[in-house]
Amino acid sequence: KETFDGHQVLRIIPRDEIQLSVIKALEDIIEFELDFWRGVTDVAVPVDVRVPFHSLQSIKIYLETQDIEYSIMIEDLQVMLDEEREEMEAAAR
Amino acid sequence: QPRGTDSFDFSRYHTIDEIYSFQDMLVAENPNLVSKIVIGHSYEGRSLNVLKFSTGGTSRPAIWIDTGIHSREWVTQASGTWFAKKIVTDYGRDPALTNILDKMDIFLEIVTNPDGYHFTHNNNRMWRKTRKPNPGSRCDGVDPNRNWDAGFGGPGASGNPCSETYRGPKAHSESEVKSIVDFVKSHGNFKAFISIHSYSQMLLYPYGYTRTPVRDRDELHALAKKAITDLASLYGTRYKYGSIINTIYQASGGTIDWTYNQGIKYSYTFELRDTGRYGFVLPANQIIPTAEETWLALMAIMNHTVRNPY
Lengths: 93, 310
Prior knowledge:
The complex is a heterodimer.
Chain A: E1 8-13, H1 17-26, E2 35-38, E3 47-51, H2 53-65, E4 69-74, H3 77-92
Antiparallel strand pairs in A: 1-3, 1-4, 2-3
Chain B: H1 16-29, E1 34-41, E2 47-53, E3 62-67, H2 74-90, H3 95-103, E4 105-109, H4 114-122, H5 175-187, E5 190-198, E6 202-205, H6 217-235, E7 240-243, H7 244-247, H8 255-261, E8 266-272, H9 287-307
Parallel strand pairs in B: 3-4, 3-5, 5-8, 6-7
Antiparallel strand pairs in B: 1-2, 2-4, 6-8
Helix pairs in contact in B: 1-2, 2-9, 3-9, 6-9
């Protein structure tokens, strides 16, 4: 079973058209293995992206150097998934 | 196992077997209202079940609702299950729903992507696509919401099998999509088609593949506004609304672009809760509130459809 230890979901807010295109370019970088939960749409509209642990540092540095605002929407995805699973099992019992 | 749908726990997430069992129980309990149609099979051989809610008649105009085409969007399959129970509970009690079902049939596909849904429970909770292998690629699956013959292959879908928005080798290549296409065409009398996704709280109408507004843009826009107003009346959940391309992004090969081009005027797609705390991992205690508020919007669309024959 695939686990998501250390994966974070970042909420990124593009401030202008340039930042929008920078974030959009991330979609094409396969090695980061990013999973866009909410895709790039417009300026000031949040983009939610699941970032694997191995790409976290690179992505955060990249966003910071581009002066792109982001926040951590989900700190550790696996923790949430574990809670979800435990809740399902408890309810089933 | 619950003995009947009355003891089914709608406030938690269920496996595919539990949902299949729920469907069979609902049919058994309501033989004069509900029947199950198997419109095809998934790549891994699972039944593509559609519940038909009908009070009789032949070739009646109909409304289609599907949930779970993106398998990880668990609140949609859970809401679909709740909708099914709501229909049988409210028929004969709620005058608006009774009026709809006295004139039209409702078809509900709760698990539109069953292989993906099973995979989310057993292998990868974040799986979104179908499960068919792609020859020559290490990556499996196709995005079934980019696989329809509506601007297929255009911008807003990927040709890379490893992408979450991989469109597939050709339009309707996925049995999960082709089965709906064949069913909708053979039925020939669908008047509304509502495809339900999560998350980000939006109600959208065509198009996604082109900026050209649909012919019925003004009516669809006004109806979307009414639907989200009704939705918000319950818990204050705020939705955006508009065409796909203007509200989310350009997306080619999408479900409701195809249905609209087939002549189904009231074609809508939802993005249910939430706004950005849990994403696809919406806690189970939000299933029923989500389903309840969405039901109000569905009723607005279904009511409008029955009152405005075309």
